[in-house]
Amino acid sequence: MNKAFSKLLPILTCPICHKNLKLINKNFVCTGNHKFSVKSYVPVFTKLNDYLEIESNAWEEEWKSKISKKALKAYDINMAVFKSLGYWEESGNASNLIPSKKDNIVLDLGCGNGVSTSKLKATQAVGLDLSTKQLVKSKNKYPNCSFIVGDARKLPFKDSSFDMVVAINMLHHVKNPQVVIKECYRVLKSGGRLLTVDPNLYNPIGFIGRGMYKLLRLKKIFPTFPQFALGEDEYQFSKKNYYNLFTKSPFKNFTIRPHRLERIFFFASILIPSLIMFPFYKNIIYILSRMGEGLVKIPPLDNICYFWKCEAIR
Ligand SMILES: [Zn+2]
């Protein structure tokens, strides 16, 4: 049996009735008789609807295979700068935020293609998302991680299972984010942390970008552009909405911070890759990013930040 898979068994529970699960003939069966399949060591607790099945193809790998080499190079350069700035929401590298380095179990909620899960320096990293096809691929690619097909609103985990839950650009893709936060609270150990990042409704670049995308029907030209893949259920949060979300949640201890201002060069350089030929391109975006990061810390400029970042402690 796969090691990461067997480590998963003690924390799993039936997402429907929360009764214990047993592995019978490569299927999970709960004592309430709910049955779930397992595909290539990936437990499947929910079924993806047709719309999301198409949407799941928009994830990074597929997108990367469809763009030009130049655009890909621009993408990589931007990513390298973001990484040097410590932007874990794009590099997927949240490991430096794990409180204790010893025996951590971390849930990557909305793990997409599993790259972010593979970068977590947790003792046990668990990725959860909706696409079986994607996660079977992820499991083959990152055998040391566990992947689970599940619904974030009905997590298939026992109470107090995780030291940390990371939800990078995830909450704004669900209709009932408050239900997801409640579930995160339930599956976190006492003292465990939830980290979330979601786009701000009033960031001018995002605001104009989304408008243009809809207005110019860019979906036809860039159907798989990950940053603009506007799902059926995609929302953005104003500062007030994001605060309300957590104020009404079971978390009593949370901090919301404005995060980043720029991303115009990121988008622009993918659409027009020759921009990266501009002298000192890397240094320019590094400096602008730092400046933006500083600016949004000064109210009322926080209202136009790119992301809201929340750290909540159970
Ligand atoms: Zn059940």
SSE order and pairing:
Blueprint (H helix, E strand, L loop, with lengths): L2 H6 L12 E4 L2 E4 L4 E5 L2 E3 L5 H7 L3 H7 L2 H16 L3 H4 L13 E5 L5 H5 L4 E6 L2 H10 L4 E4 L12 E7 L8 H11 E12 L4 H12 L23 H9 L5 E7 L4 H8 L9 H15 L11 E7 L1
Helix pairs in contact: 4-11, 4-12
This protein binds zinc ion.
Protein name: Demethylmenaquinone methyltransferase
GO molecular function: S-adenosylmethionine-dependent methyltransferase activity
Pfam families: Methyltransf_11 (PF08241)
Strand content: 15-25%
For the report, how would you describe the main beta sheet? 7 strands, mixed
List cofactors, ions and other ligands: zinc ion
Give the fraction of residues assigned to helices: 25-40%
Describe the structure in your own words:
The chain has helices at residues 3-8, 50-56, 60-66, 69-84, 88-91, 115-119, 132-141, 177-187, 204-215, 239-247, 264-271, 281-295; strands spanning 21-24, 27-30, 35-39, 42-44, 105-109, 124-129, 146-149, 162-168, 188-199, 253-259, 307-313. The strands form two sheets. Strands 7-6-5-8-9-11-10 form a seven-stranded mixed sheet, with helices on both faces. A four-stranded antiparallel sheet has the order 1-2-3-4. It is globular and about 60 Å long. It has one domain: Vaccinia Virus protein VP39 (Rossmann fold). It has 314 residues and is an alpha/beta fold. The chain binds zinc ion (ZN). The site of zinc ion (ZN) has 7 residues, from loops.
